[in-house]
Design brief:
heterotrimer; A alpha/beta; B alpha/beta; C mainly alpha; A: alpha/beta; elongated; B: alpha/beta; six-stranded mixed β-sheet; 10 strands
Chain lengths: ~325, ~260, ~260
């Protein structure tokens, strides 16, 4: 009786300890001793925290152990532990980037070549890998939001009687669109190094957009001749201002989800209106129809609008698809 | 003058159970306290081992004032007192032998062997030979009381307190217990205090009988004196006559 | 009456609230006395030492099956409900995160604690209550035993020591059943579930669970002992004590749960 009790109590205690220790070690994702330490420094680390995964060619190979600001305050030191059998390339660098849409970031061991567009931070100390951080997705979503807002403004202006001033504004707007799309293209191409598949789709749209904007601009240049008081200098100044506005756009990652939905909704509503307007313009109705009578402009704009519309609708309908691509 | 109670007072929730009870039990004497159920007899006994503290009056056992004893001294005193509980109060998770051995295990210098032989001795003394490995639930009421008695005498106490030792037993078993009580006095020379409402038993075992009535000692005397006394309340209790017993206070039945 | 001129039935609410206040203060005082006495009684190793192992078997080992049973179904429910809640935009592997995090930090310790309040607390209370009303506690004292050392200390220590182990096993069971559910009913892969499980895991979570369960063990066994030893009036009293034990220890467990969450997180 006594002996059996001893055995049982012992069994529960030993098993409990085993479950606690082994479980903790396992969930921590490493068995401690056979890991090697690795350090990198970067000017910023986004939302990287201790416990985030370290990846090499997309494979999880370790964990971030600590994230601290260096004493001088000019950079952030990230300490990692990785598998000992990992063959790290000679010109290895670390890119800190979002792992998914949900605020979990990762540190990717890569080479500088792969991210030639990024500026890497070089730490003076030996054995510290160069590091850089990609922009947050929230900036992308904010850009998309901005595009949608500007499109709405554009459609609103179409609705106002088409005056000289309106034509000027339209021209201005199309200029801005060109700037936005350029900006978007730059950002996406930065991300593209890591998110090829999605990037193709987005870049495609962006390129279409750029093309459309270019067509629109050409048309407007023709229109410029008609408009007597058009001050090109002012227009260019306005465009610069819009660009600055766009650059300040940043958002909270968590709020971005809702933002994205709203943006998509706004965008699609705008698109519908825009399509209607463009359709009536195509059929040559009214002053607007005549002004936009140029078939090249109409075709380009329609195509761009349809394309963007499709992208926005897709984002709204299947956010998961973009999530699994780890972009939005 | 081994047990001495003077003007003992105790009340529970404002109800006075003992209202100045005075009693003396001499060395080697077996004294009985009688009275109806619920009149405070058990309460009295619990004062003697320090389970209850008096509200007033003094309690002396073996020359020591029980309420004033420090914990260690109280433990030492308790080793000299055997307490036989009303329903035996055997630990029902243990065998009878283990029950009897409980008190002995706390004594210095008692090894396993000595305890085992003492347990056998005690079992023999109360005629429970061979039942040591049973559990309390497997014994009859009379056997349980005897086991309780065996546990109380195991450490060879100088004093034995019996709380209703014969309550709920048939007449034959009652006389067996009574004989055991006498045997303890004669063979072990203990000073005993028996609390009971069974007059037959009291007459059989006691050298002196005290009637506890309304929280006080109404009458004290040898059994022969009790039989011949002309106190109405005592007569009423001994003869089982409610009219006489309650007559003094107008037939009220307020129990204690 | 001169100082407080309300008389007759008007005074009753005052008297009643006064009485219950005094009773509550009395309970606190008695609980404190029990606690202080038990602390002193820890010195009597020779009295409680031999009783510890049987109590550990009773409090710990015998509670494992019920704890595992509860944990199994908690894990299943957590897994299914997590997938139900996380539809659409949130990736599937968050089911693992939710199951792991809640099992370790909250449901493992708290649900096991509440279950054992019923199983262990009521059991201790009924046992000690019966011992009290059949004068076995008094008998212990007359045999020169300190009931706190003999009855309370081994039970509370057994609770302190064994609860964390029972809880750790329950947590492991809950995560395992949640995992299995995710595999079989949610069409998730093990890799996905483990990814989620590890996502926000910190070793401190396990310590948090251990600290919580130690305190729950002390509460369940301590309240059981307290209510048991306070038992009055026969079999009915024993029943009342058992009920009181479950109610009081459940309330204390939830309060402590909130307390630890507020102080340790």
């Amino acid at each position: 009786m006594e002996r059996r009790r001893e055995i049982w109590v012992g069994a529960v205690v030993m098993f409990g300890i085993a479950v606690g220790v082994v479980g903790t070690m396992w969930l921590k994702g490493g068995w401690g001793s056979d890991q090697v330490a690795l350090r990198t420094a970067s000017t910023s680390v986004g939302q990287l925290v201790a416990g985030a995964s370290v990846k090499f060619r997309g494979v999880a190979v370790g964990r971030v152990e600590s994230v601290t600001v260096v004493p001088t305050g000019e950079a952030v030191m990230v300490e990692m532990t990785v598998r000992p059998d990992l063959a790290i390339p000679a010109d290895a660098a670390v890119v800190v980037a979002p792992e998914s849409f949900f605020g979990d970031w990762q540190a990717e061991i890569t080479t500088r070549e792969e991210y030639s567009s990024l500026t890497f931070y070089e730490h003076a100390e030996d054995g510290v890998l160069a590091g850089a951080a990609l922009p947050d997705f929230s900036r992308l979503t904010a850009t998309a939001d901005e595009i949608a807002r500007r499109l709405k403004v554009m459609s609103d202006r179409f609705e106002i009687a088409f005056t000289e001033e309106t034509a000027m504004n339209l021209r201005h707007l199309i200029d801005n669109l060109g700037v936005i799309s350029d900006d978007l293209t730059t950002m996406i191409s930065q991300q593209a190094a890591r998110f090829d598949e999605l990037a193709v789709g987005v870049t495609e749209s962006a390129r279409e957009f750029t093309a459309a904007a270019r067509v629109a601009r050409t048309t407007m240049e023709k229109m410029d001749g008609i408009l007597t008081d058009a001050n090109v200098g002012t227009m260019l100044g306005d465009a610069g201002e819009s660009m600055a506005n766009l650059k300040t756009l940043t958002g909270d990652m968590r709020a971005a989800m809702t933002e994205l939905r709203t943006a998509a909704q706004q965008g699609s509503a705008t698109m519908t209106r825009l399509e209607t307007l463009l359709a009536s313009a195509e059929s040559g109705e009214g002053l607007l129809g005549r002004l936009l009578g140029d078939p090249e402009l109409a075709d380009g704009a329609t195509a761009a609008v349809a394309n963007l519309n499709q992208l926005l609708a897709d984002i709204k309908e299947n956010p998961t698809r973009y999530l699994s691509f780890s972009i939005f | 003058m081994s047990i001495q109670l003077d003007e003992l007072r105790k009340s529970f929730d404002g109800k006075e159970v003992l209202r100045g009870f005075t009693l003396t039990v001499e060395d080697g004497e077996t004294s009985a306290i009688v009275g109806p159920s619920g009149c405070g007899k058990s309460v009295l006994l619990k004062h003697l081992v320090g389970l209850l503290r008096p509200d007033g009056g003094t309690v002396f056992v073996d020359g020591q004032s029980v309420p004033e004893l420090r914990k260690k001294e109280l433990v030492r005193l308790r080793r000299r007192i055997g307490y036989v509980f009303q329903f035996a109060a055997l630990f029902d998770s243990m065998t009878i032998s283990a029950n009897i051995a409980m008190g002995l295990r706390r004594l210095p210098g008692w090894d396993r062997k000595r305890i085992a032989s003492r347990v056998e001795e005690c079992l023999a003394l109360v005629d429970l030979n061979g039942l040591g490995e049973r559990y309390p639930a497997q014994l009859s009421g009379g056997q349980r009381k005897r086991a309780g008695l065996a546990r109380a005498i195991a450490a060879s106490p100088k004093y034995l307190l019996y709380d209703e030792p014969t309550t709920g037993l048939d007449p034959v078993t009652t006389s067996v217990i009574d004989r055991l009580i006498l045997r303890m006095r004669d063979e072990l020379g203990v000073t005993a205090l028996v609390v009971t409402h069974d007059m037959t038993s009291a007459f059989r075992v006691a050298d002196r009988i005290t009637l506890l009535h309304e929280g006080r000692a109404r009458f004290t005397g040898a059994p022969a004196e009790v039989r011949t006394a002309d106190d109405d309340v005592l007569r009423g209790f001994v003869d089982g006559d409610p009219a006489l017993y309650y007559g003094v206070q107008g037939g009220q039945d307020d129990g204690a | 009456m001169v100082l407080f001129p309300v008389t007759g039935h008007l005074s009753r609410p005052f008297a009643a609230s006064g009485r219950s206040t005094l009773a509550a203060l009395g309970s606190v005082g008695r609980a404190w006395a029990l606690f202080a006495g038990s602390l002193r009684a820890i010195g009597e190793l020779r009295v409680w030492g031999p009783m510890l192992l049987p109590q550990m078997a009773r409090v710990g080992v015998a509670s494992v099956p019920i704890a595992l049973f509860i944990a199994t179904f908690t894990g299943i429910v957590m897994s299914l409900q997590a997938s139900y809640t996380l539809t659409g935009a949130i990736p599937h592997y968050f089911v693992g995160t939710l199951v792991g995090k809640t099992m370790i930090m909250e449901l493992g310790p708290a649900l096991t604690g509440l279950t054992l309040a019923g199983r262990v607390g009521a059991n201790i209370s009924a046992e000690l209550g019966t011992m009290r009303v059949t004068e076995q506690v008094d008998a212990l004292e007359t045999l020169a035993y300190n009931p706190l050392a003999y009855l309370v200390v081994p039970r509370v220590l057994a609770g302190l020591v064994m609860f964390p182990f029972v809880v750790l096993l329950a947590i492991a069971m809950g995560i395992a059943s949640g995992w299995l559910t995710a595999l079989e009913l949610l069409d998730m892969s093990s890799a996905e579930f483990i990814k989620g499980l590890r996502l926000f895991f910190a070793p401190w979570d396990v310590w948090f669970a251990v600290i919580k369960s130690v305190s729950f063990g002390a509460v369940v066994t301590g309240v059981g002992c307290f209510c048991g030893l306070q038992t009055e009036q026969g079999a009915e009293g024993v029943g009342k004590s058992a009920t009181r034990t479950v109610v009081i220890s459940s309330m204390l467990i939830l309060c402590l749960d909130a307390f630890w969450a507020a102080t340790l997180l």
